[in-house]
Design goal:
Helix content is 84%, strand content 0%. The protein is mostly helical. The chain starts with a helix and ends with a helix.
């Protein structure tokens, strides 16, 4: 039996070595062709089947990550393709409202380009990160900083096409902050530039963005021609993503100007394309707009039906992440099972080859060995199956406990950081009283106070908090509660059972301000004074 097992191992090692030598001669060519094929498939599906494009891009990244052998100069080719894939994945994730993931993917693209010296390709990635940041934290300051970096790179390498899109994003950012002068300045720049050097695709995007800012400033008469031109170009180029967005905007426009019947017609067109593209992230909001149009028309029955559909789709959208986790576990189990099956098949084929050169007595012995191997292999498969099912729940509990510990440690770090900032502020106040030059000290004080719980702190804290309490913030929105960002932060810290002093320290405000915010929240939600805020919200 031992001799037979040693023989089998030797055969496996010789076969693997031969396969490795044969593959090494062609690996770079084959791998490059594989990467190019996945990239081509992603590009072909980019406008009409974005979910398929995403699938191919993730496969491309996974395939490049699997190429662990040193390759010298060939690495730069693979890394550039990987950086491009991360950039476009960031775009698709942002379109599906996965803003945190979009920001992280854009940063991955930037990191690879910096490491490989691909400086001339950085403008597009900084631009993508800017748009993701603006959406993640609803603050234009960081987004505008990223846009300025993108603008500098594009100007340095005379990338007019990139400048065109960056100008448009500047216009959108300033428009949200109601900075009318800067918004129109950059939008006019983008329109002038696109009319002279833009492709049909760029013209459609710029016209749509310009129409959007005009609607924001209530210029509905001025926005319509640009919106119609954008839709016409999207139809010409068969760009279904852009066409769906344009039809949605057109439907909202007609409802706003008192023509809800036209609005309903175009919104239904947008919904049809959404269903075709499987755009589950934006589909709920299309039904929400349709409900408003029916209401404006006075058709309350259809308005209610659209509103119910909106809520159902929104709930389904919020369950997607949980479904992804379950699917990942199933894929892992299937992979392990297939590995065991493939291994058993390999052993079986080798043993059949060996039997052909043995005597009749050896054949009987090897057949018996093969039977035992098959039996053991079946046992291994059954063991893996039972073990994976048994450990699923345990692994989930371990991961949850790990996330809970990380959240506790990170919250404590925020608390310690804020306390250090308070000590620094006190020392600076004392120093200010002793010095004649007050202005620099006041500036230091302002800098010190402004760094308590930065936007990066909040984003990281929110990610860790969501791992421990995945449904807390989602359930608040599903139940119809609408909170500001400061109220959302307070509720998250309240959920951790922190006292007033710790909450005020982390947020950089006075304990009295915490009590005032809590009082206003209770008043806003009509909660009696004696009732705990978190208990009421979670039971409500």
């Amino acid at each position: 039996m031992i001799l037979s097992m040693r023989l089998t191992l030797c055969i496996i090692m010789i076969f693997s070595l031969a396969q490795g030598q044969q593959k090494s001669e062609y690996v770079d060519t084959q791998d490059s062709l594989k990467v190019e094929e996945l990239y081509r498939l992603a590009k072909e599906n980019s406008d009409r089947q974005p979910h398929e494009a995403k699938k191919y891009l993730y496969q491309l990244v996974q395939y490049i990550d699997s190429l662990v052998a040193p390759r010298g100069a060939i690495n730069k080719y693979f890394n550039k393709k990987k950086a491009d894939a991360y950039h476009f994945l960031s775009y698709y994730e942002r379109r599906e409202h996965n803003f945190d993931e979009a920001a992280l993917l854009a940063q991955k693209s930037i990191d690879i380009k910096l490491a490989e010296g691909l400086d001339s390709l950085l403008a597009i990635s900084y631009h993508q990160k800017a748009k993701a940041w603006i959406s993640v934290i609803n603050s234009m300051d960081d987004g505008i900083k990223q846009l300025k970096t993108a603008e500098q790179v594009a100007e340095k390498y005379q990338q007019t096409g990139q400048l065109l899109e960056i100008y448009s994003s500047f216009g959108s950012a300033y428009g949200v902050t109601s900075d009318t002068i800067n918004a129109m300045k950059y939008y006019n720049k983008s329109i002038q530039l696109v009319d002279s050097i833009g492709t049909d695709y760029q013209k459609a995007a710029m016209y749509a963005n310009y129409a959007s800012i005009l609607r924001r400033f209530n210029d509905y008469e001025g926005n319509l021609p640009y919106l119609q031109k954008a839709i016409a170009l999207h139809k010409k180029n068969n760009n279904k993503i852009g066409l769906e967005s344009g039809l949605y905007a057109l439907g909202v426009h007609y409802t706003k100007v008192g023509q809800p019947q036209k609005g309903i017609f175009h919104l239904k067109e947008a919904i049809e394309i959404c269903l075709e593209l499987k755009s589950d992230a934006v589909l709920p909001f299309r039904y929400q707009a349709l409900s408003r149009s029916y209401k404006a028309l006075g058709n309350y029955k259809e308005s209610y039906k659209a509103y119910v559909t909106y809520h159902k789709l929104l709930k389904k959208r919020n369950d997607v992440e949980e479904a992804k986790k379950l699917a990942k576990l199933e894929v892992t189990f299937a992979f392990k099972k297939q590995q065991a099956i493939d291994s058993l098949k390999f052993v079986t084929e080798k043993r059949e080859l060996a039997l052909m050169t043995k005597s009749e007595e050896s054949k009987k012995y090897l057949y018996l060995t093969l039977f035992l191997t098959t039996l053991i292999g079946g046992g291994i498969i059954a063991y893996f199956r039972n073990r994976i099912h048994k450990n699923k729940e345990e692994a989930t509990l371990v991961e949850l406990e790990k996330s809970r510990q990380e959240l506790t440690i990170y919250t404590q770090r925020l608390l310690e950081k804020s306390k250090e900032q308070e000590i620094l502020s006190t020392e600076l106040e004392q120093l200010k009283e002793k010095m004649d030059e007050k202005l620099p000290i006041e500036n230091l004080l302002e800098l010190s106070n402004s760094r308590i719980l930065t936007k990066e702190d909040w984003l990281l804290f929110k990610q860790k908090f969501t791992l421990v309490y995945p449904y807390f913030l989602i359930n608040l929105k599903n139940k119809g509660f609408q909170f500001t960002e400061s109220e959302e932060r307070l509720l998250a810290l309240e959920k951790l059972n922190l006292n007033n002093r710790d909450i005020s320290t982390i947020l950089g405000i006075a304990p009295k301000s915490v009590m005032v915010t809590r009082y206003r929240l209770k008043k806003k939600l009509n909660i009696p004074k004696e009732i705990n805020l978190i208990d009421f919200i979670e039971k409500g």
